[in-house]
Amino acid sequence: MKHVTVRFAWHDNKWNGRICVDPTGNFYCRDNYSLISPRIQKRINLDLEGRLKERPVSDALKSANYIPPCYWSINALGEKDYPITDPHPFQDLKRMSEKFSKQAPPLKSTLRHNSVFTWCFKLGFGEDRSEQLYVPTSELKKRVDVYTGEISKEKSIAFFYANYSNPLTGDDYRYVLLGAGLVEGLEKPIEYSIPQSLLQELRSGDRMQNFPTSSWQFQINLKPETTFIMPYHEYLRWTEDAQGTQRSERWKKLEEIVIPINEGNVIPHFKYVSMHVNHDKAIFLLYLFKRSLRKMKEHGEIVPYSEMEKIEFVVDRLLNIAWKERSKYPGFENSLHSILKTDFAPEKLKDTISAVRSFILKKTGSLDKFFSSTTRLTAEEPAIAKALREIEVNKELLRFLSIFDFSTIQFSNVKEIINKIGFQTIKKNPYLLLEKYHFDGEDSWNIDEADYGINLYQIDMALIPDLDYADWETPYSAQSPERIRAVITKILYDVAREGSSCLTREEIIGSIKNYPLFYIADELNIDVDKLIEYEKQPIFKEKFVIKDESFQGGPVLYQLKQLRTVEDALEQFFKKMMTKKHTLSSSDQSWIDNIVRLEKQGAGDKLNSNERQVLYRNALENGLFILSGKAGSGKTTAVVNLIQRFRELGNTPIFVFTPTGKANIVIRDRLKPHGLTDDNRIKILTIHRFLYSAIFDAIRNYQTQNKYSSYNRYNEYRPNSNIGQQASMMVDLISKILSGKLEVLDDFMEMSKGFRFSPQVVIIDEASMIDEVLLSALFAMINADNLKHLIVVGDEKQLPPIGAGRPFVDTIFQLKRTGMESNYIRLESNLRFDTTARIGFLAEIFGGNKSPHPHEIADALAKNDSTLEIHYFSSDHELKESVRKVLNSIGKPKAGALSDMFGDIYEDSSKPVLDRIQIITPRRVGSFGSMFINTNVVKEGAQEFSPRTKLICEENKYVYVKKDGRYKRVLALANGSVGYIMPDGSVSFEDLDDFQRDFEWSYDIENIKREVRDDYIGIERTINFGYAITVHKAQGSDYEHVILVIPEMSPFIMRELLYTAFTRIRTKLHLMIHNSLKDELALIFAKAYENSSVEQRRTLLFGHKSSPYRPYLLTLKNGMTIEVRNKIEQIIGRTLDNFCERLEYEPRDFLQEYRVLPDFKFEIDGIAYYLEHLGHMDNRSYRNRWIQKLGIYEKVGIGDNLITTTESDQASDTEQNIFQIVSDIKANSLKVTSGSHSKHHYVI
């Protein structure tokens, strides 16, 4: 028997058999990632449901013969039966609607109380690229019988979940576990009555020969007393009842109890709407419920204690059942399959294994007695006798394997591992399986034939059962170093996916205690002393890098050796490029002078000529050059100019890489007017497309031309008969690495040596979005010896990558720490706005190095100007009207539906200009997240994709394309790509249109466009409305006008998110703030600054850092080392320390009350003085901020003891000038100055 997952459409009334409380507000139900979303989108009647809200489904049936299209899940906790009349899905297709409505009567059934409909959509479809869309009817019936037959009454547990369209985990695009129930019964699918003539017509279509007549749904009846839903709705209401900073704190508690599906080998069981779940995974899911309930109790009675105890009681009952059904040997039949598969024909093997099991149980009473017995069993039936002989030879192995709950494929793979390293080795340390198991992935509706990898919890359950439920024991210890090593390995893998490449020892211990199988952790009591003991053992040393920073007052850090390999590869590549220097010729200098002169003519006083001179000079002189700066600082202009210069100098090939398709389009558009996109010496690619496609393109080009081209030049490439096979292996390794399987990293690094490209210039744009693993994979494919210039472009103040590390930030840190500042520049010029612009002021505040005072933020928000205006709203109607005002102010749209007004703005030229205006929000879900704004504000409840609709792709879309007579799978449409449905109904995505020009017609490409047309009836849509997107999606793009909606204070609003949002604007920001935040807005933004996603990450790239923004070391005379922000602070601090009695960096004297941090506090003759170095007083917004800060210092009474400094324009001895300040203090003759600096100002 198996357990089963069941997808629900989100329901704000807890699936109680009633209409939603707020049908319009529950936009999750009809979003793209709901439950058979296109069907719900086409059939839902929001007006009717609004009139019948909270009423039983029966009322809708009686009054309008209407059943909510989410009926599959609506009655899970409902207490009544309802008749169902459900049209065939093809009736939703425009081209088939009339025929099916007239000729194929609707399905008539009954929705039982406490029941759900579901379907495994893997059952009916053919394999990818197969000739037929559906499997043959006979095969479908066989599959359905097997699938439903495995779901057993009173034994199988149904696990309820929601897809990404939910208010809990939708921001992260993760499934969320909702509840569970014991199966009480099952009703199989029934047949549609489709006339033979219509059936023949359908089956005559392309790939439609096997069109099914069976309905694709079966009903699961749940046992009411053992069915529950987690109290998420109660937590959501509790969170939404709070305002301001209190809501943010409540959000954190909500996140602690929500159960996302994160485990890699569990996630596939939540695809296809329904899938089977084996015993161990079902038990694991039940422990996730227990852990969540434990956390709820810690929170207090947000939910009534009695409600929590009721759910706990049900979970406990389900665990009893699950452990009992699991038994000690859940893998007996599948492991026996791996032993007998060479001795029996495949079609007879399953029946033989079943017969053998029955024979053994009949003879011995139990598998445990069989394995313990020394008596050899014999049988008369030849097949059983043959199997028993083979079992006897492998009895010890079979007993060991049977304690695991693996699929047949997995047991075969495990047997191969055992054959390589020995049975006794694995038996002594079964956790080695986690490290040695390399799987290719095998997806199947039959999970016994699938392979989704193995996980720690599966080994743990086999070796350390929960004795509260299991009646057997094993000789394995939870405290063994082998197991603790496996636990820490998993913790470090998991945290790498969240962004950090290492953890402190204390964080490791905390994570061990939070392990889902906490019945083990509760007895484990792992502590620092135990870890220190294990750290000395070879078993730890061979798996982890353990870096002890405690001698410098820092932590002890753990890192996986695989991630150390990644960071080592990055360090080596960067360091090799750092050593490369080039001599600047007189011709180069003339070119620089000329290009800066031309730039100055175009930008006027906004451009700093000296800054541009330094940029171009250092870019040409250094092998590695990092170009940073906010949007509008002139980075892309510089990149275009440098590419032109490199081409003039003959430094080709030139590779330009971007992390996203959108960024790729931006750089292409800037290069196109200069003819640079048509030059085959210049390649502009996304990193993913390069990694997956470039090798094959290179081989094909070599084979056709039989010579090296500038693009396809390898370092060690030698064509041979198996080069295509080797290239396929390389791409396979790349795919595994980028999906997180770092165990194949060494193989990839070694193999890549034979496939390296040799460009002379590599430029990486939007580099702050690239994680360590992706960047190391890219570098592995580039020959650093032949590379002359590596130019890395980005903005270290933006959001960090989705993935491990922050290599762009860490590399800048290293350049500063090692005194290589000439390899880096951060452009401070703002070529878009003048120095008085309010939006520029906001960007500088959140891109600055010091926490802003709320007064500074309040001043920036105090009044509107040509770059910033603020609107306040309390409801969706008010937000809609504010958006309408903005649209009217930036164009001349015709009055009418909001979506049509957007269309008028976009179409105000020869072709749609989709970046004229963009709504961005911190979140995808929640009140006034991008989903809500798109559906309920712009589209006003409508869900259809009509002409003049803006679109966004929410997932990478891969297709099979044909080129030069061969098919290959390539990325066609990138996550975040923007498109538009033209007035004539045609669908346009700019990067997809470019892609189609490169390849022959593909059915898959047309299928992408079909997804947004009205004749699509798939399970879900991955293309959504694009009027409103998240700030994350907007990163790498900019727009003329941006509407930034801030509806609430939540942990999602962080320093980098606000900075990224404030730097997306080319013309004007329209800031729309919920009225509940109005009085606290400045304080909320100030708190958001302190919440930095970049600083929260831990990495060891170029060493450990307490902060990535403090690269300079200041060693005091007392031996203490302080990390400071810039070189001038290092000089000031060192000099002051030599002559003062006590020195403190960034003292927190005024932080709590006034939120200001002076640079230094020092004592001379027992008197405390404060020093602030003013680094950018030539910048008006910086100067205004300082004047406000000075007022705070005067208010707290330190004006007489405050000293300020600025750097001299002329060469000077900074240390001597600081010494002069000390001398003046000691002589009681501090210089007195007037002006905006301070009472005591020195130029140093």
Largest sheet: 6 strands, mixed
Number of helices: 50
Radius of gyration: 33 Å
Task: Enumerate the spans where pLDDT stays under 50 for 5 or more consecutive residues.
Answer: 707-721
The secondary-structure class comes to: alpha/beta
Question: What is the spatial order of strands in the main beta sheet?
Answer: 4-7-6-5-1-8
Shape: globular
Mean pLDDT score: 92
* Helical content band: 40-55%
Through-space gap between termini: 79 Å
Q: Give the number of DSSP strands.
A: 35
How many separate structural domains?
6
- Name the beta content range: 15-25%
Domain AAA+ ATPase: 621-819
Protein name: UvrD-like helicase C-terminal domain/AAA domain
GO molecular function: ATP binding; DNA helicase activity
Keywords: ATP-binding, Helicase, Hydrolase, Nucleotide-binding
Brief summary of the model shown:
With 1244 residues, the chain is an alpha/beta fold.
Which features does this protein show?
P-loop_NTPase, 6 domains, Rossmann fold, 35 strands, Arc Repressor Mutant, subunit A, 50 helices, alpha/beta, 6-stranded mixed sheet, globular, about 1250 residues, 6-stranded parallel sheet, single chain, AAA+_ATPase, nucleotide-binding, DNA helicase activity, about 15% strand
Give a topology summary.
Layout: E1 3-8, H1 37-43, H2 46-51, H3 57-64, H4 71-74, E2 82-86, H5 97-103, E3 107-111, E4 115-118, H6 137-149, E5 157-162, E6 176-187, H7 196-203, E7 218-229, H8 232-240, H9 244-257, E8 276-277, H10 279-299, H11 305-326, H12 332-340, H13 346-364, H14 367-372, H15 382-393, H16 395-402, H17 408-421, H18 423-428, H19 432-436, H20 456-463, H21 481-498, E9 503-504, H22 505-513, H23 518-524, H24 528-535, H25 538-541, E10 544-548, E11 556-560, H26 561-578, H27 586-603, H28 609-621, E12 624-629, H29 635-648, E13 654-658, H30 661-671, E14 682-686, H31 687-705, H32 723-738, H33 745-752, E15 761-764, H34 772-780, E16 789-794, H35 807-817, E17 824-827, H36 838-847, H37 854-861, E18 868-873, H38 876-890, H39 898-906, E19 917-921, H40 930-938, E20 950-953, E21 957-963, E22 966-973, E23 978-981, E24 987-989, H41 990-998, H42 1003-1010, E25 1023-1025, E26 1028-1030, H43 1031-1034, E27 1039-1046, H44 1055-1062, E28 1065-1074, H45 1081-1090, H46 1093-1096, E29 1112-1115, E30 1121-1124, H47 1127-1139, E31 1142-1145, H48 1151-1154, E32 1160-1164, ...
Parallel strand pairs: 1-5, 12-16, 12-17, 13-14, 13-15, 15-16, 18-28, 19-26, 19-27, 27-28, 33-34, 34-35
Antiparallel strand pairs: 1-8, 2-3, 4-7, 5-6, 6-7, 9-11, 10-11, 20-23, 20-25, 21-22, 23-24, 29-30, 31-32, 32-33
Helix pairs in contact: 8-9, 10-11, 12-13, 12-16, 12-17, 13-15, 26-34, 27-28, 31-32, 32-33, 36-37, 36-44, 37-45, 38-39, 38-40, 47-50
